[in-house]
Amino acid sequence: MVSVDSEHRETPTMTEQIRNWAGNVEFRPVRSHHPGSLDELRRLIGEATSVRVLGTGHSFNRLADTAGDLVTLDRLPPEVRVDPDARTATVTAGLRLADLASRLHAAGFALAALPSLPHISLAGACATGTHGSGDGNQGLAGLVRGMRFVGPSGDVAELTRGESPDFDGAVVGLGALGAVTRMTVDVVPAFDVAQYVYQAVPLQEVITRLDEVFSAAYSVSVFTGWRGEASVWLKVKVSPDGTQPSRPESGWLGGRLADRPAHPIPGMSAENCTEQLGVPGPWHERLPHFRPEFTPSAGAELQSEFFVPRSRAAEAIAAVRDLGPLIAPVVQISEFRTVAADNLWLSPAHHRDSLTIHFTWLPDRSAVEPALAEVERVLLPLGARPHWGKVFLGGPKAALATYDKAAAFQALLGRHDPDGKFRNTFVRNLFPLPAASL
After folding, report:
1. Pairing mode of beta strands 31-33, 69-72
2. DSSP 69
3. Fewer CB within a 10 Å sphere, N or C end of the chain?
4. What does the pLDDT look like over 53-87, one tens digit per residue?
């Protein structure tokens, strides 16, 4: 979420102070804008020299930063149009996932997966490769069937899966192709989920029985503080007749079935978490870990995340576990999830099933960096790809060689934005402008 020190305005302001959700990044654009219509957005982009779009501000780095014009799409009219026959929904891209999910559920439909935090926008989630969990679930970007965006001259472009040759490169686009205003996503019939938490599980049991752990439910998360134990969160899909698949008994993996609600971070109140203890409920009220009306996670935090090939998942967890004495004092919690492979060029799950290792750090960059440097040292040689919106050191640049479509994405940027109007320092460091454009 974005913290704004002055009121939102549709007209640009020179004084608006904008910080990201965690407060570790302060944006200082020349001007900031909150357009109220597509025409207004087209005009201001066409007139700008350099522009970036800011979503809900849940990135922890300067991916959305700019020295030019910063655009926030929170004033565009919200729209959710469901096509039951095509099993799609066409939605305003800046809509928060919580708002989108509640509207879809009211229409009898669902997204196949949701991330831990429903507070973020659809467009931002897709642009950075954000995901939920589940062996059969792709990231949010994998659900996209079509997208509309405003390009550098104020032109409107439409791309469609299976029809537009640039589609697979544009969905996880880092905001570098234009301002995404509308997306069409695949939907499924609404379903119920029951959530169970297993505590005091030895971390070694998770490593040894990794496939069993992540196949135990529709969506699975494992949390650890790297002190030898973990908790396993199972989100079990309920059949239409209300029947739940069998779940492991207490004692599974050497742990115990929780008999009271839990927070992923030990010691924190479970008030802001979604309902547990096996009580069935709608998909959008169980798949995220946190309720949309509360501050998610810890609030004061930094985050890092790495996608590792599923074939090297146990090796990766064991390597990070060996760093436990260095990591544990500066991490609030870590989470493991699984993500199914997709075909999107800059998706961290591009062409490979993945396990993700997420770190919710203390909000102290100087204290965190030595641990993060060691995490990158052991994970990058295993083919790890950092999440585009998190905190890292040399991660994305070092991992770029693992993206076999990186050169194709560079060419895609050249076709859609040859002068680099949407390329900020973050993007140019990865995909430089040709010398003739400088």
Report:
1. parallel
2. E
3. C
4. 998 888 899 999 999 999 999 999 999 999 999 99
